[in-house]
Design goal:
InterPro entries: AH/BAR_dom_sf (IPR027267), BAR_4 (IPR046868), PH-like_dom_sf (IPR011993), SLM1/RGC1-like_PH (IPR046869), Slm1_PH (IPR043453). Pfam families: BAR_4, PH_20. Keywords: Phosphoprotein. There is one protein chain. The protein is of the alpha+beta class. It is built from nine helices and twelve strands. It has two domains: 267 residues, Substrate Binding Domain Of Dnak, Chain:A, Domain 2, CATH 1.20.1270; 137 residues, PH-domain like. The strands form three sheets. An eight-stranded mixed beta sheet has the order 6-5-4-3-9-8-7-10, with helices on one face. A two-stranded parallel sheet has the order 1-2. The two termini are 69 Å apart. The C terminus is likely disordered.
Length: 479
Amino acid sequence: MTTPTSATAPSRAFTNGSDEDAVPGEDTSEVTRLFGERLQAWKHAVGYLEDYITATEKVQHAHGKEYERVLKSVKDPLKEGHHFDQSLGGIAGMFENIRSNTQGISNQHYDTAKQLKGTTLPIFDRLHTEIKNKTKELTKGAGKGSKAVDKARNVTQKHIELLGQHTASYDSTGGKMTATDDPYVLQRGVMYRLNRQIQEENNNRQDLISVQNSFAQFEAHVLQTIQQGMGQFMQVVNTQAEQTKAMYGDMVGTTQRVPLDFEWNGFIQRNSTVLIDPAAPARSTSNINFPNQNHRSTQPLIAGSLERKGKIMRSYDTNYYVITPSKFLHEYKTDDDFAKDPVPELSLYLPDCVIGACAGQKFNVKGKDVSKGKLGNTFSMSHELQFKAHTSDAAAQWWGIISKAAGTVSAEVPAASTPTSPVDSSPVDSKHPAPLQTQGLEKKNTIGSVTSPTSAKTAGPTPISAAPASGVAGEPGKY
């Protein structure tokens, strides 16, 4: 029996270039349908053999009856038989031999029909059932994976379209929008869903590769079973006659000469543009581009880690902060887009906020958390948030960018940075600290320059200039 030889690897692979589509237009169920059609072809081929064996069994049974009719022609004793010697070796003995052999031929046809039905036909019947089960396995396995990929791609496409809508409205509205509609936030949401989509695509890809590899072994099993069944068929019909033996032997010989991988290699060559190349690398978000990915509204003015004093424990916690061109200050736990959906823990709309003076590494910002949307913004209270940068230069850079976007710039320094006067002996209420003074204060547009309060009240938000150079080499605007 021949052994399988290596087939030419399929040339089709998932897109892995440097400029990929986030949602490919390919049909995820194309490979599954192709394998389903191939299983259907094998099932029909086995069905043909079943029909062939069944028809042969019926013919053999009919031949048995016909030879019984032939036997009746020599059943009666010879007329004028007394003219012939009744001992063996004579004419009477010849006819007795004819009757005996004719009865044996009839019985042989009945036995052949019985063996075809009881031993040869069940081989192909079981193989037919195995192919049906393989079809169900393909539908429930790879078929479900394709549906999961389609569902994930639809979710990604919806969020990409949502990002497109709000990046388009960014310029028309002058950058004024809600925190949830901030293109920066929406882009991070797209990255989260794109990552989940790619995981589904890669999982489905591995499933299809496993199915593709298992098909080679399964087809070898199918062909081996066909060869076994045809060999059994030859043994049964070989007792009929020497003439039919030559014909059936040629058919089975032709079947036995078919290599186990002959059909598989032809299948690979004919469908090389559809099947998956197992050597092709998996998809990665680093190689994918999508619409509005690099829109200026999605690029932060400054981003990095800051420490913020807690309201209860009064200790500093480190978080990841971003100032976007939409004049929002967003707080995240980390800068990881893939661990979970990157929704801001806190969002401040800077034109509605007041920023105090920068004292060393510290500065304060007073405003409302608008991360809960319009309704949450209505009922939220203003809080004074105390920030601490890693260095004084970093604090000055953050303060400079925030002060350009803030509605009011105060000259009040953080409380922890102002020493207590030894002359002032008045008691201080620790539960009700003095509010941040914002009336009559001048707004600072840049570090070291002051403008009048009137100039700080503009008709609407204006885009913020790009962030100044970072103190860390190679990472502008990050700490």
